[in-house]
Amino acid sequence: xxxxxxxxxxxxxxxxxxxxxxxxxxxxxxxxxxxxxxxxxxxxxxxxxxxxxxxxxxxxxxxxxxxxxxxxxxxxxxxxxxxxxxxxxxxxxxxxxxxxxxxxxxxxxxxxxxxxxxxxxxxxxxxxxxxxxxxxxxxxxxxxxxxxxxxxxxxxxxxxxxxxxxxxxxxxxxxxxxxxxxxxxxxxxxxxxxxxxxxxxxxxxxxxxxxxxxxxxxxxxxxxxxxxxxxxxxxxxxxxxxxxxxxxxxxxxxxxxxxxxxxxxxxxxxxxxxxxxxxxxxxxxxxxxxxxxxxxxxxxxxxxxxxxxxxxxxxxxxxxxxxxxxxxxxxxxxxxxxxxxxxxxxxxxxxxxxxxxxxxxxxxxxxxxxxxxxxxxxxxxxxxx
Length: 385
Known about the structure:
This protein is an alpha/beta fold and 385 residues long.
């Protein structure tokens, strides 16, 4: 049995404890104080902690590849790259595009998940971001491909994906949205309020129909005003809604991050990267949905200055909320592990360290936030040699 011995481990419901953890057949087989029988994968320093592997429920791409490339090769490269930041599972995230291009992305994920891929992070499914969004808040999504919410259109995409769509970002105020949200909720798929001009009444109605999530809170949505609290105010006020946050301090300022942290229940905040293909690549020209993107000093923008996704790494998102926002180390880890696992319905096997769960963990330095090793299903998928 392989694992880690006599080290700091963040254990479910117990916090960080000095112990040993062993892996067998891809599962966490042992947690305790007896290191005998465990072959150490590495020797940990006092600053390093074995934490649950991170889950990114909203990421478009990395390493020069994107989910919209519509190939299994692109998904494999993304999966391999993001393991470097401690991520063990992710949702391949699409964008508003032609039906043909969206369909190609659906099929690629279906094919990838049907194959045996042990490299990097696991593809846990799809996040369909668009085309059911508001024309007032497209962000970096191409306006010409925006479509009204449709149950029938969604069913076609989901069938093409092998029924692997887990989250749908959509504008709840648009005609047809109520019906689609109800359908998604009834079928165990997360309806996420995003790219939207929704006011408070729209958000309340969406929650009543089953909406559970807010896509990249603050970005591409109706802002808070004292007479109409908009999407942002509704996200802060309604405890039913889980808030995604891009904590790169570019998409969202530090005080704005702190406002969400202070107002949302601990279990209702999820760190995402919303990263595009330029992540893990040098600065320069990149691409998003056929649009030219300029990446400079950690910012990815369209030629007109619009933010075009991020190049944020998940371990740095955790670092930012701890060092800049006063969040505890373990709470920040929860925002990238058990919270998204709960949203996606995989908390029975991912999101925390407990005997019987998947042996998908990360060795994270609690001072520098550097990732030393990422283990997925008991196999080392990244090691910082």
